[in-house]
């Protein structure tokens, strides 16, 4: 198979776009797609100070690398979750990436709060981990004057979020699907510049440019049947993921949620919370060693 642009040996055929691309032509194709999403949906601005959250996985590494190549003003935040060798490797990758991009890196250690993800002895470890990451990202961004937090969420992540929550019946979560939320009440703006990109597209990007990323999977990661279902649909209906997320964004913008959470300040840490004590401080009390 030959590259549709330069006729060199192609690395992949991208069914949704009906194009085959080689190692040299793919990165620009990908960067154009990311740039188009950012502009079309107003996800980021060049004047903003962006905190790019890098776990070390392919998606967040692709996000930080693409933003820097597109001329955005990023600094990297890595959260060390304390998951044995996985966290050691992930931190090393985030540091290598920062060095390669020549951008500042900040590392927040979850252990400084008295526990690590390996200490969490409940069934839904990922739920605790997600809360901890969101809390630490927001706190760091707010205390250090960042305009916006950027994450590597993909089209698959948004569709998974939709499927899992639609089964619970509520609609209050639908507006959260938008690719850019603005800062308010102590919550810093959130951006998902890769919301239209698939994991495969991100993987091809990091591989074609030798962007550092960790290949190991988190030992706490559960088997996700929904993810397998999404892949099956994509095989039968190429382009499903991109079309579906575009539909989701239209839905998220059109839904008006009447009942908003009443936002308070956590009595312990002072961060924005929906209850007197925020979820993170409750976890610190529950899992902390001190
Ligand atoms: Fe955290 Fe779960 Fe992701 Fe592991 S798989 S990093 S525990 S959210
Ligand atoms: Zn708190």
Structural features, described:
Helix content is 42%, strand content 13%. It is built from nine helices and ten strands. 36% of the residues are buried. The protein has one domain: HUPs (Rossmann fold). Helix 2 packs across helix 6 (199-208) and helix 5 packs across helix 8. Strand 9 and strand 10 (272-273) form a beta hairpin. The mean pLDDT is 94. The chain is an alpha/beta fold and 290 residues long. The chain has helices at residues 26-41, 58-69, 84-101, 125-143, 155-166, 199-208, 225-236, 240-254, 279-287, and strands spanning 10-14, 19-22, 50-53, 74-80, 105-109, 148-150, 180-181, 189-191, 264-265, 272-273. A six-stranded mixed beta sheet has the order 5-4-3-6-8-7, sandwiched between helices. Strands 1-2 form a two-stranded antiparallel sheet. The site of iron/sulfur cluster has 9 residues, from helix 4.
Give the arrangement of secondary structure elements.
Elements: E1 10-14, E2 19-22, H1 26-41, E3 50-53, H2 58-69, E4 74-80, H3 84-101, E5 105-109, H4 125-143, E6 148-150, H5 155-166, E7 180-181, E8 189-191, H6 199-208, H7 225-236, H8 240-254, E9 264-265, E10 272-273, H9 279-287
Helix pairs in contact: 2-6, 5-8
Q: What summary fits the major beta sheet? A: 6 strands, mixed
C-alpha termini separation: 60 Å
For this structure, the CATH topology is Rossmann fold
Multimeric status of the protein: single chain
How many DSSP helices?
A: 9
**Global Rg:** 19 Å
Percentage of helical residues? 40-55%
CATH architecture assignment: 3-Layer(aba) Sandwich
Q: How many domains?
A: 1
- By helix and strand content, what is the structural category? alpha/beta
The ordered string of helix (H) and strand (E) elements is EEHEHEHEHEHEEHHHEEH
Bound molecules: iron/sulfur cluster, zinc ion
β-strand percent reads 5-15%
Low-confidence stretches: none
Number of strands: 10
**Shape by Cα distribution:** globular
Average pLDDT score: 94
CATH superfamily: HUPs
CATH class descriptor name: Alpha Beta
């Amino acid at each position: 198979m030959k590259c549709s642009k330069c006729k060199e040996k192609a690395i992949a055929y991208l069914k949704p776009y009906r194009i085959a691309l080689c190692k040299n032509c793919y990165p620009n194709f990908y960067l154009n797609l990311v740039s188009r999403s950012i502009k079309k949906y107003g996800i980021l601005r060049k004047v903003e100070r962006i905190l790019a959250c890098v776990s070390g996985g392919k998606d967040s590494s692709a996000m930080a690398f693409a933003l820097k190549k597109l001329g955005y003003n990023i600094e990297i935040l890595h959260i060390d979750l304390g998951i044995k060798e996985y966290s050691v490797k992930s931190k090393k990758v985030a540091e290598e990436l920062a060095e390669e991009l020549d951008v500042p890196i900040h590392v927040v250690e979850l252990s400084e709060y008295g526990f690590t993800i390996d200490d969490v002895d409940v069934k839904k470890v990922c739920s605790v981990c997600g809360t901890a990451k969101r809390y630490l990202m927001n706190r760091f961004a707010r205390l250090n004057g960042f305009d916006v937090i950027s994450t590597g969420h993909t089209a698959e992540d948004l569709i998974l979020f939709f499927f899992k929550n639609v089964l619970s019946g509520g609609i209050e979560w639908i507006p959260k699907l938008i690719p850019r939320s603005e800062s308010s009440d102590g919550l810093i703006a959130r951006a998902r510049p890769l919301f239209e990109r698939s994991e495969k597209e991100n993987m091809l990007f990091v591989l074609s440019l030798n962007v550092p990323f960790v290949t190991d999977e988190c030992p706490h990661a559960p088997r996700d049947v929904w993810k397998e279902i999404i892949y099956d649909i994509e095989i039968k209906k190429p382009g499903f993921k991109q079309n579906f997320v575009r539909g989701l964004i239209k839905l998220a913008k059109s839904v008006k949620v009447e009942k908003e959470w009443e936002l308070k300040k956590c009595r312990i840490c002072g961060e924005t919370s929906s209850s007197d004590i925020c979820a993170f401080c409750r976890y610190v009390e529950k899992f902390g060693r001190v």
